Amino acid sequence: LCQYGNTLYYETGDYDGALKALGQALAIAQREGDAALKMRALVAAGHAEAAHLHFQECLGYDLRAIELASSVDEPFEETHAHQEVAAVLHRMGDLGGARQHAAVMLKVAERMRHRTRLWQALQANTVVSSLEADWATARSLSDRALAVSPRNSNLLGYRALIEYVVGDFDQGSVYLERLLETMRCATPGPTFEYAYPAIVVPLIAHLSGIDNRL
User: Fold this and answer.
1) Cα three-residue angle 54-56-62, rounded to 5 degrees
2) pTM above the 0.85 mark?
3) Which CB contacts under 8 angstroms, 24+ apart, belong to 133-139?
4) What is the torsional sign of CA 121, 123, 126, 128?
5) Is pLDDT of 26 > 90?
6) What percentage of the chain has pLDDT greater than the value 70?
7) pLDDT at 10
8) What's the pLDDT at 62?
9) Which of 12, 22, 103, 204 could be bridged to 5 by S-S, CB 3.0 to 4.6 A?
């Protein structure tokens, strides 16, 4: 049911169907006393709510999942829950809360030694630091993330924006070119490699007044 709920949401956008399936999974988890299943279903439901901008509902699900982390060894779900909570809190203006959850996510990801979760945790902390205008920390975290995943469009695009925001256009151009080169090496389509340049290039044009890449 968890997998079915995720598939309904990700593949068809069926929000109601996804939450119904995940609600059934939660009921089974509660009946059977299966904390791992409960945690997985809560995190999946939280993600669906966040994507629909239902931030309070998302926090309700993910914070319940985080409470289970002390009793069940599910680091993948734990990091996902902290990542979602950090993202929602910074969108709601609570940078202090976002920083706390991003920091815990990074600790768990470092313990996991899972490349994807590690760069995502580093990126979550990079975002919080940049929102706090702590550019030295943001750059340091970004460097660590890019060392883990050097051709990652998410990381390259965000780093380019950081450099343009602080006024280092030359360095920003280096990361922008790396982002575009990653796009050129990818198969054209609705992918991250093509989506991030479409987002980043206009923002950089706005920041710099240089529109030759539009």
Assistant:
1) 100
2) yes
3) 135/162, 135/166, 138/162
4) negative
5) yes
6) 100
7) 84
8) 97
9) 22
